[in-house]
Amino acid sequence: MTDADELAPPIRVALVDDQELVRAGFRMVLDAQPDIEVVGEAGDGVQALELLRGTRADVVLMDVRMPRMDGIEATRNVVAGSGPKVVILTTFDLDEYAFAAIKAGAGGFLLKDAGPAQLIEAIKSVHSGDAVVAPSTTKRLLDRFAVHLPDAEAKANGALESLTDREGEVLRLVARGMSNAEIAARLYVSEATVKTHMGRILMKLGLRDRVQAVVFAYETGLVKSGQGDNSA
After folding, report:
1. Which of 43, 61, 112, 161 is deepest in the core (most CB within 10 A)?
2. Cβ-proximal residues to 187 (8 Å cutoff; 6+ apart), any chain
C-alpha cells in the first residue's frame, strides 16, 4: 500500500434493498474492507432519498424492485441531484428493470449473486469513474432488449459525425462488451490511450459515462442487437 492509498478516504457506500438479509450480507462483505465504509441503509427508494439528503455517499447499491418508490425512480432522482453514483442490483429475471435504471442514469449494474470480489470491484470501478461493470453481461442485457429501443439512426448520423474514425472504432468495441485492456490489445495502443479516447467520446456526445455510451451505440444503430465481436 502506498502513502497515497493510506491517505485516501474510504469509499462511502449506501445500501438500498427491501430485503434486510440482502443488505446484511452486503454490509458484512463491505465492512471487512479497509477502504470501503457503509454509511447507511434504506429499504426503498423513498428512504434512500431521505438517507442521501442527510448522509454523504460516493456509491449507492440500488435494488430495482422495491415498495413505494422503485430503484428506477430513485436512481433518476439521485442522478438529477448530482448525487452519488449508482450501481443497480439485479437478477436475470429483472433485466427489464436494470435496463430502465441504466437509462435513468445508473453507472452500471451487478447481479445479486455476484461474489464478494465482484461486488468490491464494481464499487471501486464505478467510484473511480470507470462505469463498466461486467461488460459482457451489459452486452447480453442490451442484446435482449435492443428490440425495444427507438429507431434513432437519424440521430446517429449527426452525432457520430463528430467522432474520429478511431473514436468510432473504440465506441463500437465498448458497445460489444470489451474492456479497456481488451480494446488496447486489439488496437495495439495503451490502456491510457483508450481512456483518453473514451473521455473525448463522452464529451463530444454529451454522455455521462461509459454505460450511457453503450446504450447510445445500440440506440443509434452503431451496434445492432445480436452483433457480437467477430474476432478470434
Report:
1. 61
2. 166, 169, 170, 173, 194
Task: List the grid coordinates of 203.
Answer: 464529451
| 184 band by pLDDT with thresholds 50, 70 and 90 | very high
Q: What single DSSP character describes residue 93?
A: G
Mean pLDDT on 183-190: 94
**Measured between alpha carbons, how far is 40 from 46 in angstroms, rounded to an integer?**
14
Specify the range with the lowest mean pLDDT, choosing from 36-45, 103-112, 145-154: 145-154
Q: What is the rounded distance in angstroms from the CA atom of residue 178 to the CA atom of residue 164?
A: 19
Q: 159 exposed, middle or buried (CB, 10 Å; 0-12, 13-18, 19+)?
A: middle
DSSP state string for 139-172? HHHHHHHGGGS---HHHHHHHGGGS-HHHHHHHH
What the block records as the C-alpha cell of 24 is 446484511
Please say whether the structural domain 149-220 has been given the CATH code 3.40.50.10260.
Answer: no
Backbone φ, ψ for residue 70 (5° rounding):
-80, 175
Domain ranges of the chain: 11-143, 149-220
Cβ contacts of residue 61 below 8 Å, gap of 6+? 13, 14, 15, 16, 17, 26, 87, 89, 110, 123
Residue among 112, 132, 105 nearest 121 (CA): 132
| Strand order across the 85-90 sheet | 36-42, 11-16, 59-63, 85-90, 108-111
Domain 11-143 listed as CATH 3.40.50.2300: yes
